[in-house]
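User: Predict Succinate--CoA ligase subunit alpha's structure from this.
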Amino acid sequence: MAILLDKDTTIVAQGVTGWAGTHHVASMMEYGSRVVGGVRPGKGGRSHLNLPIFDTVAQAREATKANASIVFVPPATAAAAMIEAIEAETPLVVAVTERVPVLDMIRVKDALKGSRTRLVGANSQGVLAPGVCKLGVMATGSERPGGVGVVSRSASLTSEVVAQVTAAGLGQSTTVGVGGDAVHGMSMRDCVELFLADPDTDGLVLIGEIGGHEEQEVADYLTEVKPNKPVVALVVGSHAPRERRMGHAGALAFGAQDDATAKIKALERAGVRVAPSAHLVGRTIAEALAQAR
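Assistant:
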């Protein structure tokens, strides 16, 4: 069992006719994901990648009964695309677009209030349920079905950790990239709640970085619920200078409260085992699961 995705997930791709949409949707379909249509205003009635194209998400949902959307729309209009999917009551929306303007994302967050939609991203590599569904742009090949849930703010580190978890003889229930922008949809805590409720997830790996307070929010939640599943974390950016953005738009520490050291201390106080280095995450979660058993 995975979170967010299952064998019945059907997908429409917004912005499918552009280069990025074409490339990554073809990869998703090759993986076995059930992509059933695309959305491109002004091109309704045509086809692309042998998929029917619609002018709006509402039209695509009505015709295909899709229950998920992925957004490949450029930053200037990505928020409008997300809001369109929310207003069409799409249950799951993944936005891979990076550096959507912050004020635009605040409008998106407002549209999410009271809606039926879960939004992953923006600036997300997506969601992957190994062997079930790929809804995103992540590399595949090293993933395997298993019991480790991965929640991450970093796409490249997710690929590294997935490879390590597989090499340790484990596997992944689902990997979720919450997004590297400062304002995004589902938080790390939201994902942790879903993983802790998932009977087929035996343990969790959190991949955090400087900036924001999501890791501290997870720590507060874990302190409150005291889960019986082991949680391992990697927090990168210990040597990053303050007030300097480190790759992601949201990877920006202004003070001691949002640097790596503060996040690591908060997670350790909550009982999380923090991997001492990026190359030891797989070994650390394997040891934690062995001790839990």
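The mean pLDDT is 93.
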